[in-house]
């Protein structure tokens, strides 16, 4: 049985689009079931706070830095609003794209913002894919659980996921519990968000992780609750704010091998670094995701002490 045949599309994907779905899933995960998502949607979500200032590489001031990093990542996927793909895509046709269709800025009172209505519909994305000929494999949508507009966000995400699957695209949901009295970092609460993603038929869900825990193995074991709650929806964890690459890679290994996560969504920890360093970090992450490299090997790649990505024989990770 081939890798493509092992990918079982959800029943919301019509038979006529099953091969398209399999192709997109295989492309996004390097045929290994694990996703490296490079978060360019932060250009909207965080404005310029994350792209200019002390401790941030000067080249990060320009949006093209994201595209240069994604190109070096080879099998990663760049998540950006359609506008950035439109402006830079003609020079970066070789990238895998996830088009983020909703969002909000970090100005003002976040709870008062209704971000449920997408910037672009799935039909818009499909038309753009056809005319641009970019490799758009998925749409992305953010939900804030517990907020004033929760029901509208859930309904819009469900519809976008349905429409994406009808066309053979994947749906990736960003889900964050957010609001007064809500413990955003609580694993039990995050597991609830994972269950919501499964209920909405998402292929992947981007969730928080208790990063920086004193006992990283214990934290990883606790996070198994999240993976179980997600069921057949794959969980990728956010990278968070910039921290030492060695810490990120060490934590990634336990996420993958103990928690059972299916990848990493990384923004500030990547694009705030100079291009050469960011490229070494994506190579190290890719080695862990797709070649089962251990932390020590990955750190050697990041530090430039190991010349080639490990070529260890790896089994295909079961997808559904």
Keywords, please?
single chain, 320 residues, alpha/beta, TIM Barrel, eight-stranded parallel beta barrel, 8 strands, 14% strand, globular
Task: Draw up the topology in text.
Layout: H1 3-6, H2 18-28, E1 35-39, H3 42-45, H4 64-73, E2 77-80, H5 82-88, E3 96-100, H6 122-132, E4 135-145, H7 150-166, E5 170-177, H8 187-199, E6 204-207, H9 216-222, H10 224-230, E7 234-238, H11 245-259, E8 263-266, H12 268-271, H13 275-291, H14 295-302
Parallel strand pairs: 1-2, 1-8, 2-3, 3-4, 4-5, 5-6, 6-7, 7-8
Helix pairs in contact: 4-13, 8-10, 9-11, 11-13, 11-14, 13-14
Task: Describe what is shown at a glance.
The chain has 320 residues and is an alpha/beta fold. The chain has 14 helices and eight strands.
What can you see in these coordinates?
With 320 residues, the chain is of the alpha/beta class. The protein has one domain (12-302): TIM Barrel, CATH 3.20.20. 42% of the residues lie in helices and 14% in strands. It contains 14 helices and 8 strands. The chain has helices at 3-6, 18-28, 42-45, 64-73, 82-88, 122-132, 150-166, 187-199, 216-222, 224-230, 245-259, 268-271, 275-291, 295-302; strands spanning 35-39, 77-80, 96-100, 135-145, 170-177, 204-207, 234-238, 263-266. An 8-stranded parallel beta barrel has the order 1-2-3-4-5-6-7-8, surrounded by 9 helices. Helix 8 (187-199) runs parallel beside helix 10 (224-230) and helix 9 packs across helix 11. The chain is globular. The two termini are 15 Å apart.
